[in-house]
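hey so i finally got around to running the thing on that chain from the lab meeting. sorry it took forever, my laptop kept dying and i had to restart like 3 times. anyway pasting the input first so we r on the same page abt which one it is
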Amino acid sequence: MRRAGTGRDVTRLLADFGHDLPAAPSLSPSVREPRLYRNAPRRGPRYRGSGWAASTRAPVSVWRMTSDQAPVLWPFIAAPGLPPTGAQMGIDVLSGGSFYLDPFGWVLRDDVPVTNPNVICFGKPGRGKSATTKAFILRMMDFGYRTLILGDPKDEYEPLCTALGVEPFRIGPGLPARINPLAFGPLAQGWADLDAAQAQVRAAIVFGRWLTLLRGLVGSQRVGEVPVPFGPVEENVVKAGLRLLTGYTHGTTHLAETTIPALWHLLNTPTPELVEQCRYASTRHFLDETRLLRDALGQLTSGALAGIFDDHTSITVDWAAPIQSLSLSRLEPLGDEAVGIALTCLSSWGRGMRELADPGDLRIMVRDEVWKQMRLGVEAVKSFDGDLRLSRSHGDVQWANAHKPSDLLSVGNAGSQAVAIAKDLLHLADIKILHGQDLGVARDLEQLMGLGPIARDVVTTWAMHGKGRALWCVGEQQYKVQTVLHPAEAALTFTNDAIAGAA
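ok and heres what got predicted. didnt touch it at all, straight out
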């Protein structure tokens, strides 16, 4: 028996008998494509110098940054949220949280870029600026704020006053209500107990306010296209007349209240004392040099002011009431100039009423249709500018409503002093609310507000697609806000009654 593996195989056996097996066909080796990637073990190759770190997961770096640094890396993240204090106005669309408005609270905080509590609200009619204003008024009452509507040209606030149990004061030709813009206000209280220095300080405040008013009223009158001048000469004449009428020249301890018609009558029939104080050679010299001033005051007395602001105040304002409103709707037939003059007089009167406000007596001063006042001329613009500057000292939130930013450009000729001051008014209101506007105002928004293309598109597109939508500019921060009204508030803020009735 042979050992395994020592015998002939099949090929040898067949060859011994003269047979050959056919050769197997040779196949060319297949060419493989080079591999781009090589699989590696989970923990990396196990040999020296391979360059792999043995780790079960990718390393993660941790970074910390503040909320104002985060938008640099994530530019679509919403701006830093405002503190939840004050009136809850609606929804911050970008963050999804609630949006609050607290003007004085923001002024007192260092983390909010606000230095004054004034608010300017722009918006095309029907976009919700009136509803936003009224919602703010109602919700701030819970924090002790009261409201004074310094002129309601369209009676928009009458339903709100009625709901709060307050009857608005209606001012117009033939109505019994009178407002004296030359009223002393609370500064007349305790005058007899003041020493000489204190009396001089109060007198400077009172006469300064009166001169600002009269400068604006006289400047609203025109000779052709040129406003009636009110320079140092006219100011000296008016100041001397007011001092004589009130008794301040004679050192009277109880000053008498005067009116604009009384001043006009004194200038028309000047006393020798007035002529001497104004340094004129004679009465005829005085009358010749003051003719334009006297004619302007006479036109106001017999025209726009007749029966409204030409006598002592006949209304008694309850300053403890939650709201007070002065209705000017009866002046609409007289034109925009008459409404503007009335707004200027009420502005001066309201400032006088607040000159000695008690600490903690916080008030919202609403000013509608401010463009009608500012179009009277540069002096009227200065008067409104002064009100905004005094808001911090008086404890008032000055809330001004206008249609569009370009209203500020229409107060005078391009490059004029009035336009320059009107533009600066935007800097005196750190809180600006921009409701929906047409595309035609995009250039004005870019020029006056310094908005970029994204913010501009928010105002001209998103805000136009729903009422109450607005871009809120709080200092340098911007927010997309949707004002939300309670059904009861919606009924009080509805301003389309006339249109709804016609439909």
